[in-house]
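Field: COMPLEX_INPUT
Field: COMPONENT_COUNT = four
Field: RESIDUE_TOTAL = 1201
Field: MODE = joint
Values follow.
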Amino acid sequence: MPGSLLSVRGLSKEFGGVKAIQSVDMDLVEGVVTALVGPNGAGKTTLFNLICGHISPDAGEVQLAGRPIRGERPHTIARLGIARSFQDLRLFGRMSVRDNVLSALEPTAWLWQPGGRRAARARLHKTEAALERTGLSALAGARAVDLSYAETKFLSLARILVTEARIWLLDEPASGLDPVSRARFVALLKEAVAAGVTVCLIEHNLDIVTELADRIAFLDRGRKLAEGEPAAILRDPELIAIYFGEPRR
Amino acid sequence: MTAYLLNLATLATIFGILAASLNVLIGYAGIFSVAHAVFFGVGAYAGAQVALNLVPDVLLASLAGGLLSGLLSLCLALPALRVRGEYFVAASLGLQMLVVTVFSEAHSLTGGHGGLVGIPPASLLGIDVSSPWHFLAVCVGALALSLVWIAILMRGGFGRGLMAIRDSESAAEALGKNVPALKTIAVAIGCSLAGVAGTLFAFQLAFINVESFTLEQSVLLMAMVIIGGAGTLLGPLVGTLLLLLLPAALSFIPFIPATEIGTVQQLVYGLAMTLLMIFRPAGLAAPSTGRR
Amino acid sequence: MLILQLLASGIQTGVLYGLTAAGFALIFGATRVFHVAHGATFVLAGYAFVLGAQAGLPWPVSCLLALVVAIGFGLFMDAFVYRPIQRHEGAFFTVFVAAFGASLVVQNLIQFCVGRGSVSVSTPLTRASEILSGLYIAPVFWVAIGVSVALFALVTMFLDRTDAGVALRGLSENPELLRAFGLSSRRLSALAFGIGSAMTVPGAILTAATSGIEPAAGAHVVLISLAAAVVGGIGSLRGAALAGLLLGITENLIIAVLDTQWSEAAGFLVLFAFILFRPSGLFGQAVRR
Amino acid sequence: MMKRRTFLASGAATLAAWRAFAQTQSHVVGTLFPMSGSNAEFGTLYTNAVQLALDHITADRMLMSPIELRSQDSQATPQGGAVGMTRLATVDKASYVLLGFTGVSKAAAPIGGRNKVVMINGGGVGPDLATLSPYFVNIIPLANKEVTVILPWLAKEGLKRVALIYVDDPLGQSINQEFAAGLPKQGGTLVGAFSVPPTQQQFGAIAARVRDVKPDAIYFATPIGTQLSQMAKQLRDNGITQQFVTYSVGNLPSIVAQPESEGMIFTGQAADWASNEPKIKRFVEGWRTKYKAEPVTYALNYYNGLMLFAMLAQGLERAGTPVTGETLLAELMRVRTFQLAGGEVTFDEHASASSAIQISRVHGGRSEKIG
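Field: COMPLEX_OUTPUT
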């Protein structure tokens, strides 16, 4: 597909006989926001895990800007410019908010850091800026486990924000937020998209999906059932029936 | 009296290094090793052999002890990369038991149960440092260096990387951390420091045998770190002082029958471990939990 | 004949290892508590039996006493040590340290109250006689096998047939369920501790009869249980029991070629190898890396 | 099993020692025994022996200044030995320390030597203890001497095939060497030597191997009493009916009392409890009244250990020489031969004692001298 930054071809994964993902094709086009939609257990998170290398696929191909990345270790894939968030956030609980973000800026943290003091100061600067944007500046010294729910969501975003990754894979980033926080959150995402980030998000809240997404990929039981413009997908009665409660076995 | 206090202070310093080094694993990297006495022992034997056969130079012997322990730490890093949690504890237990057998059977290297006797008095770059004051100074120096080295590492990106892995391995990976490399280095650092402590221990006692490197020792070390506060710089030192000075302090209490001191001490130490874990699981030196 | 004799003594050790390990596995599987104080349960049960017998109680009463002490201690640990810690959302290591501390307390209390040497009961059951040329078997051999098999069958039946048992097994086979059960699993966890602790009793009593029991004997028991539980696949009772049996046999058979120093080490080498190459154990489901 | 009374007694002693802290006139004698852990049975036994000697010395008014006992727990480990010895030497300023156990002795010897403290070993019998330090005195004959006594006896009894079960430490290794070298000279053979770790508790498998080599006698070389009793019980349980032989460790009360030890032969210093020699008689009767039990040679060693101190100090006091470790050692090396309970003891140039070794047999829960 033209402009495809990340392309997934024929990706499959089985867990003990259960087909979690069955030959899924998908493309993330530069600057386009794709929403992964589907009922629980459709395999959305598994798809993220396969792309990021947390799970190795049984078959299929993943390419980042034409370079095959299937079989690479997660940290290598991350360093190539794919950032992801987790549904359960997985913050670094016993570290401070600042260190959570700062740590995301040091992927190759070694016994010593390249660039010396100046680079270190730059990283700190960037961290403070990210905290500022996500409204966490006042909490920079607090431990992540001590944050409120909404604050943890923003911290998770801040960690991705600083990485300057080209692709963001976000797993229900805004779920459970109150309307005000949600608006703030969506605004931040839009800013990022405007700055050229390619976003793929898993989202159950269709309001957010319609507000953000340019395309929707619909997954059910490991298969991609449809992909297209949000309006078209959300009008398909069959998909809506699956989504909203066709009784599943 | 001074000599007794000096001896105790030197031992406390050596165990301080040990606890601090174990803290790198337990507190920062989240690698719950109960095989730390193994690396203490490797360092002690290596240092003692250098002192016995080459020169009794603390620096050289410590280097040898630290290096060998660091190399052999791969035995611990390997399971640490494969498994976590209870499985890793089990693996390190296995390693500990295995190595104790090797220590007691490799007569030519370790002297078996008879141990290595007559380790010569220590010197440092040609200067005799075997007097209690001098040797304490050497040990305090080593402890200070270790603490500074750990503090610098843990304040920097490396430490943040380790703690990130400790708190969430998958998130750390997703942010580009090379988890196997970081873990391996952390284990190597912790174990080589333990090796240095082992060498100092060998010089201090002038006699070592396998009884100092058993599972009980590993558990004592672990208790020092946990009781003091894992993941804090000074916690392990607090734990070391408490657990090491406890028997000495108990033996000064006149109303405990001398014959029962050992039992009472173990009892107190066991009870302290259990109660602390129930009421203050983060350890004595850890800041109290914030809002929650 | 040597091999046969070693095999026999391996089986006798092994069945008791297996039973104790299965108790450990049951507790770990159902509650995710790394019950290091399992060895303390074992020692307490052994001492209860010996002291009962020395006080002149008839042996079934002494056995019952041992059973009560074991179960009581298990329930005590569950209610007053593990549960408060879990309320604090302690990491598993916190549990490990607390349990270790408790074992130390038990060991030293026994030393203080009873004495430090080993205690044992004398019984004609441990006297071996030659049943084949060169093969000596003591009646205790059959007792160990009989009791272990019977008790194991009883526990498995309980787990298979009763509602509570099925729920327990569900927990150990699918740890995810544990989260769903949450703290409402309180009674189930007490049940697991009760049964698991009871499973140390035959081993404790027979050890007291064959080789005597000492305050520090718990450490070895825990190490073996732990090794067996891992090798068998954590959560699998059958796996733990079988692995315990195998460890006992290995420990004994290896003496045909090596000195005894290596017999314990061999068991831990097996453990280490399993963790490196097959962390899911013999029967376990795949664990997360 | 130890008696509560002993705890109280030693507790009272400690208390008394504390009160006397300021009185620098008294002679400070230290004990460095394992008081906790699996070897604590020895520690209690040794402490009892020292207490009894102290009672007798006080009753006899042997010394002008009183003896003050200070106790440290060696835990039977090198580290415990080093810490305890340092404390005895530098805090308590003991001039004379009674200790035991090979590992403890090795760790304590350099410290005692540096601080000029005479160390009396009455329990550890590893042959490498002979030359640890000039200040290290062995009042117990070392184990290799015991083996030389048992070899002719084995030959005389026609026990030609000997199997050895030994703990793999210097003691066990030296016994192994002594047997391997000495048995053929007597026309016997060492048909099997099985080493075990000090922590081993199960001997069923060893029993199988021992039976497999068809020995006439089985020799146990373990320094740990509980282990010895396990070995004896489990071997008998596993149908091994041959002669058991061991060295002085067999003299522990718990072992002598055990039914499986019936008929076991052990060597040890000549100590004839039925003797009419007044010193030994006093010791035996004193022990029986005070501890309601039969004495053992280990206890005799430490009893003699403190008695030796009283004799040395008495000599020094009479000569007007201050009692220090240095003068005590000089006195020991001057006199060399002492009339202690159980007979004459002579110290060689390494300050290691040689005294007559006797062979005893366990019979009916008691030990009896057979040669």
